[in-house]
Amino acid sequence: MRSRSFYVEIFAVSLAVILIEIAYTRIFSFTLHYYFTYFIIGIALLGLGAGGVVIAISRRLGGGDSSHIVPIVCMVGGASVSLGYFGIAGVPLDPTQIGAHPLEAVKLIAASLVLLVPFLSAGIVIATILVGRPNQLNRLYGADLIGAALGCALAIPLLEWLDPPGCLALAGLIFALAGARHAISRRSLILAQVLVGAAAALPLVNPAWLPDPVTTKHMEVFRRDDLVRHSEWNPAFRVDLVECGKHFDCGASVMLLHDGSPGSVIKEFDGDFSKHDRLTTNPRSLPFAVVAADPSVLIIGSAGGHEILASLFFGAREVTGVELNPVTLRLLTEDWADYAGRLHENERVRLINGEGRWFLGQSEEKYDLVWFVAPDSYAAMNAASSAAFVLSESYLYTVEAIRESLDHLNGDGILCAQFGELEYDRKPNRTTRYLSTARAALAAEGVSNFGAHVLLATSKGLKGLSETTILLSRTPFAPERVRGFQEQIARVERGASRHVPGTISSDAPNQAITLPTPALSDWFDAYPYDVRPVTDDAPFFWHFARLADVVGGPIAPRGYVVDYEDAIGERTLVVLLGVIAITAGFFLMLPFVAIRQTWREMPFKARAGLYFGSLGLGFMFFEVCLIQMLTLFLGYPTYSLSVTLFGLLVFSGIGSVVSERYSAHRTRSLLLLLAVLSALVMTYPRAVPLLVEVAIGAPLAMRVAITLLLIAPLGLCLGSFMPLGLRTVSGLGPHGREYIAWAWAVNGFFSVMASILATLLAMTLGFSLVLLLALGIYGVGVLALLRLPEPARH
Q1: 705 confidence band (pLDDT: 50, 70, 90)
Q2: Which residues contact 483 (CB under 8 A, 6 or more apart)?
Q3: Per-residue pLDDT at 562 exceeds 50
Q4: What is the structure's pLDDT at 598?
Q5: Average pLDDT over residues 654-663
Q6: Residue 561 scores a pLDDT above 70
Q7: Which pTM was predicted?
Q8: Which residue(s) pair with 588 in the sheet?
Q9: What is the CA 416 to chain-centroid distance, rounded?
Q10: Is the pLDDT reported for residue 680 higher than 90?
Q11: Which residues contact 656 (CB under 8 A, 6 or more apart)?
Q12: What is the spatial distance between Cα 497 and Cα 637, in angstroms, rounded to a whole number?
């Protein structure tokens, strides 16, 4: 029976695992915080790696009949998916309260164990198949990668069609049926297979049987069940439409929540502008006090249409609204179109579904006002972070974004950025960083007196926040425009002028505006938070904590208020990294105890471990960086996720299969592959920006094709390293099966650490340097493997 092929089984299990992982990242981004994406990634890769260790130390599983083991473990894994979701969805989990409430720690541990079962089952299945067929390693590993690639490609449409709980149910069914071909051949397993398959399919018969996940108490401030009028999942984020006016000062409107946090509002409008005279005392009036009469307006982040309504109220002759989330756009133009006064049908309005930077890059139009309307929801660009193994940040705030926006202004046009500030008077981090970035952008345009080109004000925001308004112009603001700005801010509720040309102040934003360039760098070093300019190479606008502060203890040593900007996300990553490192160390050392004699007889463990660990680190570094770098080109975060991962995994799978042709010449092949990899790493940081500049306006199908062509050589190259290493260790003595399983585990454990490390390093170094670091890691691994004997040629 061992001679039977298992390509279908390993393909199906890998597909299911990716769907489970992506669906849970969406669920946890809604129920917890977006940085708990790494909680799921960590559990997933931990389970896959631990499966390799189980096979390495278990004589019964490691030496058993694969055609018996695989269907049983697949049924266990598949059943655990739906059963586990009922437990996860029904119990509110708030890890931020672990210190205050020990019960939260217990619930987190229980949730971790529930989530671990399907991934551990998948790790056991994959390792069982690999160790039993060393002569088919190239093709089996290729099937594993191609299955994962298909999972990435299907994840986005499945999330839209079934929503994340439904996607989980489908993944559980695929997992449960993955071993059916071998179960049917054994009479003792047929009944169990039928029962498990039927049970896994039940949630798909009626998706209403899958409960909505319970949220934490802090989310109930915005999302009370009696106020919710519409709820819908999509690949970008969960959208809830709630009544607003009774609990917030929103007037006649409904609020859009993105992953449980306030995103925007839809104002009730019956065509009578006189009923909206409150706009004259609203901060949305500020850009119109400065811009030319009858302006053409581009709104980035038009969301529920509040700013479209304001633009029409203040006499805009044409308004172009760009909105990332298709669900938000549909609510405005279809479901709640009558409530919103059918704004999209106004002859002066044009709505576009797309990402702001993509629209700017492919458009040649000029505007009097380019308006970035609080596109600062922590969920707004979170599609990539929730499913692409990276803490994605917005490309709307970078030096390049500001320069691109300035290029789309008419002569005296205005760039306006508005967003909430948690505590402006004590730590205006967002405002200060945006101003420092804008200063760098205008300096690149030849502007030396930045203070003459910026106007700054604050006003009352939502739920105790303040709202910052920043106006920028290529030309110095004339005195009459400054007067108009100051007169209008005096009418705005709790409005305050913070900077006009000639202002001298010691607060942080004004320091970023007015300090002489030589003194600015020293001031950045002395400021308690990192507010230096951000670029496309490291677009982590919200990352205000220096790495030393994240690792070294409490931030804000000078009495600043501690809040969500105080490295909570970064510290979560560091803690998770530590937990994974300790857990990985335990599992990787387990063979020392469990199979001491076999372990002693396995040669070259340190060099082999270094090689497979390097592959785990380096591959994930490449993956994280490429997804981020291609987001602008593809124009939508979910496109970058699905296309980049699909291409990388498919071509890596093909590379694995093709490597069988030259695996007999391991040393020469490894050196050639490393040389090709070096050339590619040197090329990508230059090629991607060139593609953005030249082809961003091309049709999406053409951009997808270009992306796949760009990724193909890297995938073909990366896919060859793993099977070459597995073939090498499988021939090192009589314990090749145990060696393959242990190598698989090493690769898995280092992969999960890499997903976290890549993000932390990108925040500090930028994506280009992380790519170079990945190349160096591969180089170290290759040197280690070259010191192992070459496998015997057949």
Answers
A1: very high
A2: none
A3: no
A4: 80
A5: 86
A6: no
A7: 0.84
A8: none
A9: 27
A10: yes
A11: 138, 139, 141, 142, 145, 719, 720, 722, 723
A12: 36
Judge residue 597's burial from the number of C-beta atoms within 10 Å of its C-beta, 0-12 exposed, 13-18 middle, 19 or more buried: exposed
For 140-149, 207-216, 400-409, 746-755, which range has the lowest pLDDT when averaged over its residues? 207-216
State what percent of residues in the chain have pLDDT above 70: 87
Three-class HEC string of 630-674: CHHHHCCHHHHHHHHHHHHHHHHHHHHHHHHHCCCCHHHHHHHHH
Quickly state the pLDDT bin for 566 (edges 50, 70, 90). low
SS3 265: strand
The mean predicted confidence, pLDDT, of the chain is 84
- DSSP assignments along 394-411, one per residue: -TTSSHHHHHHHHHTEEE
Query: Which of 167, 148, 149 minimizes the C-alpha distance to 158?
Result: 167
Whole-angstrom Cα distance, residue 776 to residue 227? 54
Within 363-503, where are the H helices?
383-387, 399-407, 429-444, 479-491
Torsion angles phi and psi, residue 353, rounded to 5:
-90, 110
pLDDT tens per residue across span 335-355: 999 999 999 999 999 999 888
Q: Residue 393 — φ and ψ, nearest 5°?
A: -125, 170
Q: Which of 234, 212, 236 is nearest to 225 (CA)?
A: 212
Say how far apart CA 116 and CA 43 lie, in whole Å.
6
Strands 228-232 and 239-243: antiparallel
| 96-127 pLDDT tens trace | 666 567 777 787 778 888 888 999 999 999 98
* DSSP one-letter string for 534-593: -BTTB--TT--S-HHHHHHS-S-TTSPPP-TTSSHHHHHHHHHHHHHHHHHHHHHHHHHH
What single letter denotes the amino acid at residue 737? R
> Mean pLDDT highest for which of 473-487, 570-584, 615-629, 780-794?
473-487
Question: Six-digit token pair at 126?
Answer: 């994959």
**Identity of residue 433:** R
- Residue positions counted in the chain: 794
Nearest to 263 by CA among 356, 397, 353, 379: 379
Quote the CA–CA distance of 319 and 341 in Å, as a whole number. Answer: 16
| CB atoms near residue 467 (< 10 Å) | 23
Q: Record the tokens describing residue 586, joined without a space.
A: 């335990």
246 CB burial (10 A radius; 0-12, 13-18, 19+): exposed
Structure tokens at 341: 């006064």
User: Residue 234: what pLDDT?
Assistant: 76
Quote the DSSP letter at residue 474: S
Name every residue whose Cβ is closer than 8 Å to that of residue 48 and which is 6 or more positions away in sequence: 17, 119, 120, 122, 123, 126, 748
